[in-house]
Amino acid sequence: MALRNKIFVGAYCMSISIKRESSLTFNNNVSFCVGSGRMGLSLQNIFVKQLELVQKEIGFSHIRCHGLFHEDMSIYHEYKDENGNDHVEYNFTYLDMVLDIYKKAGVRPFIELGFMPKALASGDQTVFYWESNVTPPKSYEKWTDLVKATLSHIVERCGDEAYSYPVEVWNEPNLPGFWKDADMDEYFKLYKVTAEAVKSVGDFRVGGPAICGVDDERWMREFLKFVETENAPLDFITRHHYTTYQPEIKGRYKYQKLHEIEYGFDQLKKTREIVDSFEKVKGKEIHLTEFNTSYDPLCVIHDTNLNAAYVAMLLSRLGDEHASYSYWTLGDIFEEQGVPYSEFHGGFGLVNNSLIPKPTFWTFAFYSKLKGKCVYRSDDSVIVYDGKKYRGVLWNLGDERQLSFNMEDEENGRYCLITKTVDEETCNPLKIWHDMGEERFFTEEEASVVRAGAYPLIKTEKLDSASFDINIKTNGVVYFELYKAELKGDRGYCYEKAVQKFSD
Amino acid sequence: MALRNKIFVGAYCMSISIKRESSLTFNNNVSFCVGSGRMGLSLQNIFVKQLELVQKEIGFSHIRCHGLFHEDMSIYHEYKDENGNDHVEYNFTYLDMVLDIYKKAGVRPFIELGFMPKALASGDQTVFYWESNVTPPKSYEKWTDLVKATLSHIVERCGDEAYSYPVEVWNEPNLPGFWKDADMDEYFKLYKVTAEAVKSVGDFRVGGPAICGVDDERWMREFLKFVETENAPLDFITRHHYTTYQPEIKGRYKYQKLHEIEYGFDQLKKTREIVDSFEKVKGKEIHLTEFNTSYDPLCVIHDTNLNAAYVAMLLSRLGDEHASYSYWTLGDIFEEQGVPYSEFHGGFGLVNNSLIPKPTFWTFAFYSKLKGKCVYRSDDSVIVYDGKKYRGVLWNLGDERQLSFNMEDEENGRYCLITKTVDEETCNPLKIWHDMGEERFFTEEEASVVRAGAYPLIKTEKLDSASFDINIKTNGVVYFELYKAELKGDRGYCYEKAVQKFSD
Amino acid sequence: MALRNKIFVGAYCMSISIKRESSLTFNNNVSFCVGSGRMGLSLQNIFVKQLELVQKEIGFSHIRCHGLFHEDMSIYHEYKDENGNDHVEYNFTYLDMVLDIYKKAGVRPFIELGFMPKALASGDQTVFYWESNVTPPKSYEKWTDLVKATLSHIVERCGDEAYSYPVEVWNEPNLPGFWKDADMDEYFKLYKVTAEAVKSVGDFRVGGPAICGVDDERWMREFLKFVETENAPLDFITRHHYTTYQPEIKGRYKYQKLHEIEYGFDQLKKTREIVDSFEKVKGKEIHLTEFNTSYDPLCVIHDTNLNAAYVAMLLSRLGDEHASYSYWTLGDIFEEQGVPYSEFHGGFGLVNNSLIPKPTFWTFAFYSKLKGKCVYRSDDSVIVYDGKKYRGVLWNLGDERQLSFNMEDEENGRYCLITKTVDEETCNPLKIWHDMGEERFFTEEEASVVRAGAYPLIKTEKLDSASFDINIKTNGVVYFELYKAELKGDRGYCYEKAVQKFSD
Amino acid sequence: MALRNKIFVGAYCMSISIKRESSLTFNNNVSFCVGSGRMGLSLQNIFVKQLELVQKEIGFSHIRCHGLFHEDMSIYHEYKDENGNDHVEYNFTYLDMVLDIYKKAGVRPFIELGFMPKALASGDQTVFYWESNVTPPKSYEKWTDLVKATLSHIVERCGDEAYSYPVEVWNEPNLPGFWKDADMDEYFKLYKVTAEAVKSVGDFRVGGPAICGVDDERWMREFLKFVETENAPLDFITRHHYTTYQPEIKGRYKYQKLHEIEYGFDQLKKTREIVDSFEKVKGKEIHLTEFNTSYDPLCVIHDTNLNAAYVAMLLSRLGDEHASYSYWTLGDIFEEQGVPYSEFHGGFGLVNNSLIPKPTFWTFAFYSKLKGKCVYRSDDSVIVYDGKKYRGVLWNLGDERQLSFNMEDEENGRYCLITKTVDEETCNPLKIWHDMGEERFFTEEEASVVRAGAYPLIKTEKLDSASFDINIKTNGVVYFELYKAELKGDRGYCYEKAVQKFSD
Hints:
Four copies of one chain form a homotetramer.
Chain A: E1 12-18, E2 33-38, H1 45-57, E3 62-66, E4 76-80, E5 86-90, H2 93-104, E6 108-113, E7 126-127, E8 132-133, H3 140-158, E9 167-169, H4 184-201, E10 206-211, H5 216-230, E11 236-242, E12 248-250, E13 253-255, H6 261-276, E14 286-292, H7 305-317, E15 324-327, H8 359-367, E16 373-378, E17 381-385, E18 389-395, E19 401-407, E20 415-422, H9 429-435, H10 444-452, E21 457-463, E22 467-472, E23 477-484, H11 495-498
């Protein structure tokens, strides 16, 4: 048990007493940003629908993706004129289309500058099924020209609002797969010229080093030392966060175990400490520009209720030290390891490609409602109060349990408790798909059945006081609201008389 | 128990064995027609949305309403010209709007001719909050002119398809409230001249006498005698069917008990017998142009799960003798006893005015899927088979029970069972509304919570053979599908490995 | 010429020179409010679509209608309890539906308090086809209770925003048709108790006397004297404004001549003078809570291009003295003289019942774009400049003419002139409908043809300097934009080469 | 004159007399098929909207595209299992998505089998910016397995309807760019094994050789000889048809002259003659599976009014000998020569990427309404009669002209003439875009202005007899309807009185 940290095994019941006033804090940055794969895929019809669904129920402020400069966005080009002279030209047609889609969905870009256009690359190493070039530029001048032209164009298209879009330099340069030889000095060079180019365009905020958890402490330290020494611009620090062990692989799929709870938080704490040890950046915002359980888009865990509960746990604490934590990714339109072969396939998405929300979707939807003062936090719950309603998110990584709440400051009276339950019995599209035979890609008719089974179970309870029990099954996530609900009953209406048995 | 007919009390479990071949019949005329209150209300924005929702999930073929000739449709007018001469003129603007709304929704009118335009009435007796005149015409010639002009206009607007719209003469003339003095001879006169007028326009099918269950045997007999004697056109017979006793009244609301099951069917059997005793009409179609549990739009029962289960029982048998049975009504936009004072108020609708489907909505949605050969029918179930899938509707007017099914002709193999459950725990918007404080009219935000709780619980089960159990709670309605679902699993995908506990 | 005031007859050409800086003012209150007939009709499906269309292209802030307390809104009720005691109760279901429709369309109510619920009336005089009672209340206490309950409910439903909804007491009490005997003292009494009731609910702004142009000077003077003497609350003054002479009547329709231009403005000036002669209200806002050319919903003029041009003239000047001027009405869903018999029938609407915009619709759409500093105003034009673009509305009540503009402060360069033309040749749905045979109510297919012919003709012109000519036909309204449009031409693109003749 | 064939230069007026009965034929196969670039692009959001728009106004039955087997569709894969054995697997996820999009839009695939998956290719030659492999398969067995698996999957997904989808083998093998070395024997081999594979799946219709106009006579002859000799399945013959001369190139763009009119028809006639000279295929359907004016997606002509008029001419005659002629392409989402750099760029599309219909869009929309008996055909017009209405499409490749029509068999009476005009003055989005500065990619606000200017000018005329004049400007296309339109005028309505001048 020690290994898993604080997860209760065995059924139990716990009593919790809550006051309106508290000195607790809960920084709810859940909706700040979400990831979305490759920018070119934002042009897809299904992606747009996934984004609409996510925005309707969650409402993210920003969106981050790879591949702004990938070939399919078709931005950078070189050509020879009729006299044989070389020229560069930029094509922003698809970028404009993407920006329009974002705007219509009410979301703003968290700009990641990368990868390298083939025509501008110094080598031919690529990453992903879609083969994006990850080598340094053949000319740093042409690269910074590209960066400046692109940001200038965004400003022209989106107006001054564009200066509020955070800009991040490259992605996971600490992995040799994402940056040739994981060459640290080369990255620092890239970072500095790029960050300066960004600042030259206007009042953008710029950040890095966008590393993941491999050799991360050394990278972070060296990066900050470089920034300090070289006086490179740096407005915020970025890193990634994944929480699974190495996979077991079967055919196309990966099976991974989750980290013990404190394992990951310890890593993050370390980053905070390193940052705060540098005078120049002490206390600066850290953005987790990617996080998820598994870092693999074919890891089965993403579609499960366990994932939803584990992410609920993460979301309760990540705001303590981070300005944002961007779930990677919003939808299963994603091709890093190729096009999905099957309806459910362990994709990163909150929503699958038949627009079926996964359990973790609801974890985000529930957290997005937690506005107000924090009145309770524990290892398996966050509760806030806004003056009218108590709202809480509860989760369970252990065995089924019962929680008994008592809102101490509430007088007796008629209360309504609303619960929305997501657990393996009530909201488990993966199981429905499996039972139906693991269809490769649903027809709309099939999808509509599964979709109907992928929504939380809504229940209400009328209470005579502000005390109530909530039951949570293993891997369950429960959202509740509690508020005073005086009866506005119309003249002569009697609910108890309305409800009857035939045999009465 | 005898009184309630065949309703089981006490938990039990029952085993049912089913073969593909059977000599059973089940005439599924559930989707033929639905009622909708007053025609003028079809112009309402919320009505149109209710109709769309009903059509999406159920898909009725026809729609019937009162008040084609009521003042708010503004069809019939008299005026004096500048020389003082009297003229009649017709205004079909609103009728055209209604026909357009029907057309867009994919539904056709089941035309009820009535009530009397005030300018054409011989008296001033009215019915309903909206005060529709129910006296004979002051001039039968002007009345038949009106009928002919209206039907001709419909043909002009809708084309030859219009001839397939059934035409019914008046509504419940056997009640003095709906037809002055319930004057039988006057109705017969009306019927004959009207039916002849209908036929003079073209090949319409015409029917009557549209009576309800008061003095109905005498009326039916006399009507058919009249039709035979007078050789009046008659293509089908119509009557109404309600199944509740006299109400207890509290304030605005009515509390009514349901008839024992056979009570109502006995009434209907009697009608069939009377019809078949006349040579001219023997075997002709009988249409129940209205039916419901209670005949009162403020009777609380309409919003309950009991209503859903009782209607499920009715729908399993009404097709045995009737060409259609039109639920009165599709939505709560309805004003016969005034405008509703409250979100739930016992209205007739399958859908309430915040577009929340009531339990009975799902009874219809479930039945609308029962296509194929009937392989089982009992007092609490209907099951069909279409060569690929078994589909069934089960209901429970008694105590909770378990049904065990075995599809005898199916070989062993991987099967999927889908169930959709509507019962007091899983799909009970009335309770949610009550718990929330019986709001008079929801905001969209409130409505969305209740709406989410007004959809059936979807579950699936993977089976190794075509045998399974289904549990039904009191007042529950369950829809199921069973079909062979071979695993199409992708290379390496293992569901059992995907599903895990954190503590594993 | 004199009679019609300043309308030019005979073709001519005029040169106009414009500077960026000017001391001209143009108060553009065009979008503040629009009228919509009877509140109950806001529930109609087609009304909602008309409102959506109007909001999309024009975007009004407020909407005003009659009949808040009319029977079809079903707000006020009296009943006897089981002990025979009398009670009053209110039903806000339909009011909530209307408020929801407004909210979704982004428009707020300009509340008119009236007419009298039949159950609260002292007499039985009614107005309109829909027979609304126009007699004083049988009990002023019950009336003020009703007012207070209604406003309180609106506050509860809409939140504090509700206090920004202006409240007006009754409608046209100076006409005996709208207020029994046009009894001035009785209205003043009604005004005072009502205004005080309004203020007792909260910080609403209240106004009156909502008179039209009959005996209006005397009414206005006496009303303001009363308000001053009695110290009644009064935050703004309201009156109506129509600009046609008595009609010639043929069958159902009215044919009216328009007032000379200054005729109406002289009336309005008089009102302003009277208001300003009272110390208490000097300089207060005057709202024209209704205006149009004809006051009759069957006056053919409303559908014409002449109406569009005349209204363009009105809109150029009404803001000089009025805080708002609410066009009566947005759509042809309107029943004051009965349900329309025909597709076009002279209805008040900017949009007809097949969602065809009338020429006057575009006058409003064009004016709604006039944001910025006024740089030119004349008898037939208003032009503004916002730092980037010049935007103008031009109209022509006389013979075809040509206007030559020169923007003095603009340097030479590439400019784009966009014009949108609405005149009898290019955007005249009335003519199309007439040519097609004056259909009573279109099918959607027919409507789509006419709708396509009811949009302005869009043209552009490339200029080498900021000088250009615009031609306006009789009864035409033209909108233009002029702005610098440097060529962003792509590499090798040559428009002149792209455009060719086959025979070239 | 001679060179351009039958195009009139110089203004003129011509009188045309038409009878209801005629022996003329006009095979209107205009709506049978349309092209759409690369299949993978069908997943794009804007493509889906382009398809919806095209389907709403034109309504094509089939759609044809390249790249079914291109990498981005991700269908064909090889992998090694854990034991080192090689396997093939197919991924139909994206294909299913495309089929769903087609289905929702009401269109069916015209299946083109090609190009070569890289993993299955024998060489590495590619075509297009998107680099599709055009070499023969490394294994014909694996290729036919792929074909069979794909078609079988389509049947499974779409049901028996799938057998009605025509299947074509490869694209333009007579060009070395599209088929390695334009190797004729290799293509014949491919054709035979593929066609046999197609037939082995079920009752599909299969065709080829999909050649364009290069060395086409020899290819067609040899292909048919091969088919006859080898007894290969062949249900229909396919070829392409473009009608421009070699381009002048400037920067990115191509400027091309159109062929004289008979030049292209002569080519097509030759194909028909060759086909009919083979006993086996004599009289078989010929499908032009691609046609357009220019074959280049950066040829400026596609966006012009000239293109619309020239295509109108083509559409009047192509049905004489061809079962279909598929315009290449429906929308500007297209990447064969890269992503467009500019709003208008000479793309093939009927609709551009801001959903602006081009003039040629309307040519198709107009032709799609020509249903009924042909009563007149000339070099610049086609007119049909359906018993109620005359409908015609007129075009003008020469100088402005006037046509005077007289419908001989019509009695005098009230007629309505509707015209929809597309010419350089009334419906010319290219000019508007140019005048506005040749924007690279519009904002939605800019696009909405241009879109409004991209719809035909609708006019009507009331006639007293079935005689009328229509004026057509150079490069104009005019659609008209003529029908009897008796006045249904309402009581008292007088249009002539309604229309007035202010000064009257």
